[in-house]
């Protein structure tokens, strides 16, 4: 695990799944971590907060005002900010293209793309002050593959890739910006999906490495991009997908 001693990190959507694994990995590597998620996730996050000795900074990041408040509260609690991990997101259900409503489109875009954009904007001045800040965004293999019932989610994650490259240019040289694009990762949320229960074995057969991803697989990639071993990398997308996509 890369050394993260002394690093001050905010992980959005950190109470569950990949986000929780990122919080654990960074804490184990020596970072001080602030966990963001919805207020309603507090009870579920109690064990994680205790295990990682993390600060809890709840907030709905689909609001620009809340993005600003979460960053300010994180800086107050941690004494600064070195790394932002934009993990908050999700498909919010399978909805075929032809059935997609304006409300669903806005909800998915706001959760996945708007939150990362405005959280990064609020964090940038603090990351500059740290003397070598980093932003790590969470994309998806669906940006490359597409999906007939997740078109808005795939588009939002494509936006994350474009945002990553644009911010890498806009914030250089003081802040490095990269992304991790997970493949099918066996989070508790994925295991509850109807398609996973019905077609999981068929989907697994498409993965060259022969297993589902573990949230810790993704967390290790995030830690690499957050740490000093990746100091000459920016604007890149690290694909962590067992070989299901080889762009």
Oligomer: single chain
Question: What is the name of the CATH topology?
Answer: Rossmann fold
Summarize the main sheet: 7 strands, parallel
Shape, per Cα inertia axes: globular
- Helix/strand order: EHEHEHEHEHHEHHHE
How much of the residues is beta strand, in percent?
5-15%
In CATH, the homologous superfamily goes by the name NAD(P)-binding Rossmann-like Domain
User: Low-confidence segments, ≥5 residues, pLDDT <50?
Assistant: none
Structural class: alpha/beta
What is the helix fraction of residues, given as a range? 40-55%
Q: What is the helix tally?
A: 9
Tally of structural domains: 1
Strands side by side in the biggest sheet: 3-2-1-4-5-6-7
CATH class group: Alpha Beta
Compute the gyration radius: what is it? 17 Å
Kindly state the mean pLDDT as a whole number? 93
Number of DSSP E strands: 7
* CATH architectural category: 3-Layer(aba) Sandwich
Structure in words:
With 247 residues, the protein is α/β, with parallel strands linked by helices. It has nine helices and seven strands, in the order βαβαβαβαβααβαααβ. It has a single domain, classed as NAD(P)-binding Rossmann-like Domain (Rossmann fold). The protein is 48% helix and 13% strand. Strands 3-2-1-4-5-6-7 form a seven-stranded parallel β-sheet, sandwiched between helices. It starts with 7 loop residues before the first strand and ends in a 7-residue tail after the last strand. The model has no long low-confidence stretch (mean pLDDT 93).
């Amino acid at each position: 695990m890369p050394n993260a001693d002394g690093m001050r990190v905010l992980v959005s959507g950190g109470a569950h799944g990949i986000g929780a694994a990122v919080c654990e990995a960074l804490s184990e590597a020596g970072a001080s971590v602030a966990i963001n998620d919805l207020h309603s996730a507090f009870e579920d996050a109690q064990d994680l907060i205790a295990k990682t000795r993390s600060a809890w900074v709840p907030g709905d990041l689909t609001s620009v005002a809340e993005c600003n408040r979460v960053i300010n509260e994180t800086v107050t609690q941690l004494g600064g900010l070195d790394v932002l991990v934009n993990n908050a997101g999700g498909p919010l259900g399978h909805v075929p293209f032809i059935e997609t409503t304006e409300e669903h489109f806005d909800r998915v875009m706001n959760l996945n793309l708007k939150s990362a954009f405005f959280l990064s904007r609020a964090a940038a001045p603090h990351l500059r002050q740290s003397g070598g800040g980093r932003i790590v965004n969470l994309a998806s293999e669906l940006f490359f593959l597409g999906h007939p019932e997740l078109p808005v989610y795939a588009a939002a994650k494509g936006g994350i890739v474009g945002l990553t490259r644009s911010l890498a240019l806009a914030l250089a040289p003081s802040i490095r910006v990269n992304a991790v694009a997970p493949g099918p990762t066996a989070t508790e949320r994925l295991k509850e999906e109807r398609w996973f229960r019905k077609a999981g074995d068929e989907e697994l057969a498409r993965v060259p490495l022969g297993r589902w991803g573990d949230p810790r697989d993704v967390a290790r990639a995030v830690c690499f991009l957050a740490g000093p071993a990746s100091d000459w990398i920016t604007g890149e997308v690290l694909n962590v997908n067992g070989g299901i996509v080889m762009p």
